[in-house]
TrEMBL record:
Boundaries of every OmpR/PhoB-type domain copy: 126-223
The protein's name: Stage 0 sporulation protein A homolog
UniProt keyword Cytoplasm, yes or no: no
Post-translational modification 4-aspartylphosphate, affected residues: D52
Cellular component terms (Gene Ontology): cytosol; protein-DNA complex
Record-linked Gene3D superfamilies: 3.40.50.2300, Winged helix-like DNA-binding domain superfamily/Winged helix DNA-binding domain
Keywords per UniProt: DNA-binding, Phosphoprotein, Transcription, Transcription regulation
PROSITE patterns xref list: OMPR_PHOB, RESPONSE_REGULATORY
Amino acid sequence: MYRIFIIEDDLVIAKSIKKHIKSWGYEVECVTDFKNVISDFISYDPQLVLLDISLPFFNGFHWCSEIRKLSKVPIIFISSASDNMNIVMAMNMGGDDFITKPFDLNVLTAKVMALLRRTYDFAGQTSLLEHRGVILNISDSTLIYNNEKIQLTKNENKILHVLIENKGKSVTREDIMIKLWETDSYVDDNTLTVNVTRLRKKLQDIGLNNFIITKKGIGYMVE
């Protein structure tokens, strides 16, 4: 079931959109904190965003830009500010479509369905994990911290995935090796150590010191 995230400060419009799209079998949530839209976005991890331009604190162009730093999720702008300049700006900032208010809810839903179909018939769904300001995008093996973005190897991505999913708990070396190679046998134990060492170096280069902690005789963890 696809998740739709609505960033709209007019509660009447937001609730109407939510009710209508949910009736078609989608999961829908509305932003709750207009100062920290990205926190809600990461927590909900949607497959499509409906975004107004005129918002409290920061406008939709700002939030579109911030979302694009993290994700390629489809974004449809919904706004009454439909002059050519705003439409062009919305597309240049990373928007995928623009719908002018007032609009027919059935037309909006049809556009949502079409964009979801085009996006996810050919690609996997995105998945974001956040911890202590670190944002891990599992789908494209990237990590962002303090506006710095690094590319991870397949193994580094899997290591961070399992550690962040189990944050605050020790993860055994055996469990991590199963995640990496689907087996805890016939794999040189030193291979995991090498992968973790290289990953730590990448994290340190962007200011993440001691993000991965060694639990002697057990494995690793992130606090």
